[in-house]
Amino acid sequence: MVAAMTDTMLDRRAVLAGLGASGLAACADAAPPPAPKSEAGLTWADAPALPEPVQEIYPTLHRGQIHLAGGFVAAGGQITGPTAAHNAFTPGEAAWSPLAPLPRSRHHPQLISFKGGLFAIGGFESPSTEAVWVMQSSAWAYDDYDDVWTDATALPQPSGECVTADLGGVLHLCGGRVPAGEANAAWTDHTDTDAHFVLISKDGAWETARPAPTKRNSAAAVVLDGAWHIVGGRSVAGGNTPVHEVYDPAEDRWRTAAPMPQGQGGLAAGLLNGEIVAFGGEFFDNGGGVYPETWIYDPAADAWRAGPDMRSPRHGLGGVTLGGRIYAIGGALRVGGSETSAVVETLEA
Which residue in 323, 335, 328 sits closest to 308, CA to CA? Predict the structure, then answer.
């Protein structure tokens, strides 16, 4: 077996290319989680953990449940590769429930509820240890009643680490990364994109919409008052960004809003009390690490303020709002591929 990569690797290309070379990453002991802070009565609390540790995920709300499918899983302290596992959580239940797995294992598939159906779009497959980042354009649709996945309309091009939203009954997918050339096997084969695609009907063809002003991947996005807010993320060449851009679907137009107080890539976000809450992510300079900060955006003031620090800071996690609380799902407790987690916590009043 090839030796696992060390925790001192700081560049994401090296860290994630290391997963392709070895198929795993070292996992170190976790530091004790910081005591949660409170802002305007908000606190982080425990919620039922995932069935297994998983990172690089995009869970979504669908028919009153949180659905999670795909991602990188870990066992025995090491990442073992992507998974096809599909689980759902219903508020009030003590555990997540297993459902039909994806047709194939993928990491970073975009889950989105659209016109009553659940879709898994794009992401990456890992057919070998030399090809861990094979970006996909295909998509699948989930049948809740028969508990099966079937083929759905493929994207015009491969897509990974993008963001999605249902805006007024139209499915939008924007940004992320695409293959830079013919090669499509390693993280370094890809580059950032501003591409913006829309799907009007479940069985229709993808169409193009106005490209985003900023090319970036690993951002977070929420829909607030009919507008699509995309915050944070990173670029392959430039690293983390605090950029905050807003898309108006009625006018097919983008505008710039107040940037985050700091750039956080690999973060998650949700809505709480009519405000955007962004949290988590990772950085690679100065030894690397995971951001504990939570930031709250007031749309009326176009301004951010500090929220309560995460109880278990993570990157590559998911954020879903349900029942007046935000669920922070899975991710990794250390920068890169180390210390994948099954932790689920909620932010609530």
Answer: 328
Counting other chains too, the contacts that 138-144 makes at CB distance below 8 Å and 24 or more residues apart are: 140/102, 140/103, 141/117, 141/202, 142/67, 142/86, 142/99, 142/100, 142/117, 142/118, 143/117, 144/63, 144/118
Helix/strand number for the chain, H first, E second: 1, 35
**pLDDT given at position 10:** 28
What's the mean pLDDT in 3-21? 36
Rounded mean pLDDT of 14-21?
41
| 13 DSSP 8-state letter | H
Report how far apart, in Å, the C-alpha atoms of 116 and of each of 92, 113, 171, 296 are.
23, 6, 12, 30
Q: How sure is the predictor about 22, in pLDDT bands with cuts at 50, 70 and 90? A: very low
Q: DSSP string of 297-344?
A: EETTTTEEEE-PPPSS--BS-EEEEETTEEEEE--BSSSTTSSB---E
168-184 pLDDT, tens per residue? 999 999 999 999 999 99
- Residue 267 corresponds to which amino acid? L
Q: What is residue 18's three-state secondary structure?
A: helix
Structure tokens at 273: 């009390």
CA-closest candidate to residue 333, choices 347, 314, 320: 314
The count of other CB atoms within 10 Å of the CB of residue 300 is: 7
Band of residue 75 on the pLDDT scale cut at 50, 70, 90:
confident
Q: Is 348 helix (H, G, I), strand (E, B) or coil?
A: strand
Tokens of 143: 């049948």
pLDDT above 50 for 157? yes
Question: Which pTM value belongs to this model?
Answer: 0.90
Q: What is the largest CA-CA distance in the chain?
A: 55
